[in-house]
Amino acid sequence: MIPERRGPSTGAVALSGAAFGAAAVFLGAGVVAGDWPTGWAAVVCALVLTAVGVTVRAAAGRTATTRDSGGGPSLDKTDTATGPAAPGRASFVAAVVVWAVAVLAAGIWAATSGDDDERDGGGTAKGRPSASAQPSTSARPTAASSLDAAPAVPWTVPAVGQKYDEGVGSWALGPTVAQGRIDGLFAYDAAGGSVRWSVPAPTREALCAITPDTEEGIGLVAHGRHEKPCATLLAVRTSDGKVMWRRKLGGTGLVGNALAVGGTTAVTAEDGTVRARSTESGEQRWQRPAPKGCLPLALDADATRTLLVEQCGKGARLLALDTRTGTQRWTRDLPVESTATASVVSVAPVVVAVDEADARGTHAFLGFDDKGAPTASVPLSGPEGVLSAPEGVGDGRTVRPLVRDGLLITFAEHESMVPDRVVAYSLKDGRKAWAHDAEGQTMALAAEPDGRVAYLGSDASVTLLDPATGRTATVLKPDTAELPAISIAPELLPVPGGHVVLNQINMQAEPAAFALR
């Protein structure tokens, strides 16, 4: 008796069984995890299962052929030489081909599995939900920039000056940020932190004033000596730091931080007079001496309108002037009956902050329409807590509120002695529109280029809010254990691919500036 031939069929079946088990386990794990295999993983599984089926069929065919021939080789020369191939042999050839394709696919899968494991089809890291989908998780800004390839804190600028030295403001200039430091105006590259240009303050003079923003590529700064008036005015071109012109102011110099640029006009309140100059040449265009018994308190301007707050005796008023000509458009008496401090929060729409000495007087943000008619009044202290206002106004922390889409947005000291809430009020009627409770202290407020509202937390996180509802849109948390210190009065400036934090008061040698991505 010729022994039964078991090697090829038995080995093939055993190999197929093992492969079938591996493929079944892989598929089962995917089902349990709620995620079917995709890409090359799916191709390999399909080929393996197909190869198993063909191999089993080949094994069955060969067994049947062996049994029909009595367990030995066929003596029929026609079947082996000139007739069709035996069913078992054809199936076995097919199985070999399918197994070869499966092995080739597995090799390609192994070579490319690194990319598939780390990213899904949309380019988002698996296991790391996008920031918009998971507001409370760590995330990075998505805007394209060289900051994206840098560490969580790409750069820092060391502390500048002595303890308690205080900066005066900043400008967001796209890929550059300009910081008004005590020793001058310095522009940092937002991606690397290098100084692109600077306008150092002269010896024994300090930077004492800066415009809230720039227009037509020009901003204003002013210098002053110790215990002397802030009396040297400069116009600076923001593209390269060139000083366009310089003027010495007489008398008492600038009134507070009352300087602004509107279009191509520079407007200042100086020594009791409002003056307008060309931002290009410094040539005077018009002036408006304060009426007898009146003093300018605050001003701001855009290309068409200049807003001026004046104290006249124990009263105060708000005036709208034509920025190009100085012509008075309208005036509105403010609800003030004692000495007051004031700040222009927004030129269009018109919003001012007023805080008078009388404890029972006006302490509020006041809104007006384009003709000067009152529209809203928001108390600086109320149910939401003590509201943050511009420097010198009110008892809350200093912050420049945001005005957008008919809302006034600022911080509130709600449950502690520090701001811990972001609140928004309608400028139509002064009613609260929404409130957002922060997990910790809110440090700085900023407007994002896409319209969202951003605030800096004491943990160096940046939270983005929907301006219409106050709901969290994204939370950006640097993925590093070591973070630069944040001072008590920082500023937050959005830049392409991230944010820059400016520490405007040197308390404990905090960095003058640092970037977050």
Structure description:
It is a single chain. The protein is built from four helices and 34 strands. With 517 residues, the protein is of the alpha+beta class. Strands 22, 23, 24, 25, 26 and 27 form a six-stranded antiparallel beta sheet that branches. The protein is globular.
- Tally of DSSP helical segments: 4
What structural class do the secondary elements suggest?
Answer: alpha+beta
* Shape field: globular
The tally of beta strands, per DSSP, is 34
Short précis:
The protein has helices at residues 7-33, 40-68, 77-82, 87-118, and strands spanning 156-157, 169-173, 176-181, 184-189, 195-200, 205-210, 218-225, 230-237, 243-248, 254-262, 265-270, 273-278, 284-289, 294-301, 305-312, 315-322, 328-334, 340-346, 350-356, 363-368, 374-379, 381-382, 385-387, 402-404, 407-413, 421-426, 432-437, 442-447, 453-457, 462-465, 472-476, 490-495, 498-503, 513-516. With 517 residues, the chain is an alpha+beta fold.
Question: Which key terms come to mind for this protein?
Answer:
single chain; 517 residues; alpha+beta; 6-stranded antiparallel sheet; 4-stranded antiparallel sheet; 4 helices; 34 strands; 39% strand; globular; disordered N terminus
Topology:
Blueprint: H1 7-33, H2 40-68, H3 77-82, H4 87-118, E1 156-157, E2 169-173, E3 176-181, E4 184-189, E5 195-200, E6 205-210, E7 218-225, E8 230-237, E9 243-248, E10 254-262, E11 265-270, E12 273-278, E13 284-289, E14 294-301, E15 305-312, E16 315-322, E17 328-334, E18 340-346, E19 350-356, E20 363-368, E21 374-379, E22 381-382, E23 385-387, E24 402-404, E25 407-413, E26 421-426, E27 432-437, E28 442-447, E29 453-457, E30 462-465, E31 472-476, E32 490-495, E33 498-503, E34 513-516
Antiparallel strand pairs: 1-34, 2-3, 3-4, 4-5, 6-7, 7-8, 8-9, 10-11, 11-12, 12-13, 14-15, 15-16, 16-17, 18-19, 19-20, 20-21, 22-23, 23-25, 24-25, 25-26, 26-27, 28-29, 29-30, 30-31, 32-33, 33-34
